[in-house]
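FW: tagging you since you asked about this chain on Friday. Here's the raw sequence from the shared folder, copied in full. Didn't touch anything.
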Amino acid sequence: MPIDRKTLEKVVNFVEEKKGRDMMLLDLRGISVITDYFLLVTGNSRIQTRAIADYLQEKLGVWDIRLLRTEGLAEANWVLMDCGDLVIHIMTPETRDFYNLERLWGDAPVVAAGNSRFEGSSLAD
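HL: got it, structure written out here
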């Protein structure tokens, strides 16, 4: 079953509570067969990046989101959490600037960014 708007909002709100910065939720439906959504998040440091990922690992199951795979947790420069319909990228500022996934996926509509979360989005409920 595809991830719904309410669940996406929970994930975004939780990451914001954990002080994730520069959040951007991209809608990749119709653009990529890899996943439906990318959530891009910046942590201030490797310690914070790891902490956000650790907290998310605990919460995802509570929200009935199956975590299929986690990559990069040991180094914590870029933690990728694959949840099937949602892939979460948690990066240090330097890593995010270097890889610039926003530019790479520039054709994807931005569903949520910063304080303008979910306003006027075309998310399926």
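FW: The longest helix spans residues 46-62.
HL: agreed, and The two ends are 12 Å apart (CA to CA).
FW: great, closing this out.
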